[in-house]
Structure formats: C-alpha cells, structure tokens
UniProtKB/TrEMBL annotation:
Residues 33-142 form the ORC1/DEAH AAA+ ATPase domain. This is ORC1/DEAH AAA+ ATPase domain-containing protein. GO terms for molecular function: ATP hydrolysis activity. The lineage of its organism: Bacteria, Pseudomonadati, Bacteroidota, Flavobacteriia, Flavobacteriales. InterPro entries: AAA_22, P-loop_NTPase. It comes from Tenacibaculum holothuriorum. Gene3D superfamilies: P-loop containing nucleotide triphosphate hydrolases (3.40.50.300).
C-alpha cells in the first residue's frame, strides 16, 4: 500500500450510501445515515459528491460554530456571496439560492454528531424553507441518533420539530467475511489464516486498512513496532 494510494471498494455500506444519497437528492428528502466510525461513510459520501452535480458536502468539525457552518454552505453555493452579515442573513441568502436553483440540490452533512439542539433548530428552519428543492443527508455515529432521541424525550426545544421531518435512517453494517477477503486480496494478501484472523479482530473497515498496511510494511522488511491489538 503506497503512500497516497487509494482504492475504492463496492461494499454493502458503500452501495447503500450511494442509493440513499440518490434517493434523498431526487426526492428532496431529509435522511439519516447511522454509521460507526470506520464504516466508510466519508469515503462514500465524498464519492457521491464528486460523481453527481448539485451536491454540497460539508464536514461538521468541532471548531465549527453555527455561523461558520452556514457560511461554508453559502460559499459552496456562491463563492462571491457577502458573508460579512448576521447569521440570519446568511441563512436567508442560502434559502434564496436553493429555492431559485433550476436543479434539485443535495446537502450532505458529514459528522452531524457535532450538532447541538440549537444547530437542529437552525437546520429545521433551512429544511422548512427549502423542502421542495433540497435533499439533506445527516451522517453520524449511532450514539448521536440515540442522543437525539433522548433530547426529543426530554422535549428539548427544536429537536422534535426536526425529527418529525426525517424521512428515515439507514444503519450501516460491519464488514462481512467476504468483504474482508476481497479487500485483502486487492492488496495482494491471500493468506486465508491471516484474513480469517483479521475478520475476527475487526469491527470496522478503518482498522482493516491499518492491519493490511502493517502486514505489507512488515512483508516489505520495514522495522515496525510490536503493536498490542488488545488495547484498542
């Protein structure tokens, strides 16, 4: 596995994400993707963004507040937009551009688990104002959707209003034995004992790629540390 080398695999998760993005995009729906860390969400979402037109991909980071989040969306829609205004004006510009687009758009929010209840209120406003011309993907880890239900049960302001508009949520699967084998084979790893061991060890694709890299580095003669795989 050379530095910078990237391979794309048509796993169950990858295909499901392509399908749900297309469905949300075509029908202007708000849909959730519930996937553990290492499920391949970001890879699949970025692939859809690159492959299709009229898709806005935003990664919600820890350092990003509400204003910077919507500023990024606005600049995706119009790089020359005036961003030196209040947040509500930024959102109004976004709504105007989406509703006046001749094509349906899809907003993909990756790592939406960083959203607070207040963020969900703002998203509800955007959703209500653009539901005829904008599909939305909320991609996050399972504990965020659990937290969202907890907020809803506690009647936290703004949460119930958004949850009622979520068309549905798909849950991603752990790697299958066949997927582990096919990915390993793609990197010229064919030892069935090694592959079976990896399948028993892992619960996500990210760890599998780390194990493959270690194996290839060691096979190449690199002096690698003695990792304790029981710790993580």
């Amino acid at each position: 596995m050379n530095k910078g080398e990237k391979k794309l695999f048509n796993t169950y998760n990858f295909e499901e994400i392509q399908k749900v993005c297309k469905y949300a995009h075509t029908n202007s729906l708000l849909i959730g993707i519930n996937g553990y860390t290492g499920a391949g969400k970001t890879t699949a979402l970025k692939y859809y963004t690159k492959k299709e037109n009229y898709v806005l991909y935003i990664l919600r980071t820890v350092s990003m507040n509400t204003r910077s989040f919507y500023t990024d969306i606005l600049l995706e829609l119009n790089p020359n937009a005036n961003i030196y205004v209040k947040t509500n004006i930024i959102i109004k510009q976004i709504i105007f551009l989406i509703n006046n687009s001749e094509n349906k758009l899809l907003l993909i929010i990756d790592d939406s688990g960083k959203f607070s209840p207040t963020d969900l209120e703002f998203l509800h406003e955007l959703r209500e104002s653009t539901q005829e011309n904008l599909g939305v993907i909320l991609a996050g880890v399972d504990y965020y959707f659990i937290k969202m239900r907890d907020w809803n049960d506690k009647n936290i302001k703004g949460v119930a209003e958004l949850m009622r508009r979520i068309f549905g949520v798909i849950t991603l699967e752990r790697p299958t034995k066949q997927e582990v084998k096919e990915i390993s084979n793609a990197f010229n790893v064919f030892d069935e004992n090694i592959i079976n061991k990896w399948y028993e060890m892992i619960d996500n694709f990210g760890t599998l790629f780390f194990l493959i890299k270690r194996y290839l580095d060691q096979d190449r003669g690199d002096d690698i540390p003695s990792f304790d795989d029981q710790i993580l």
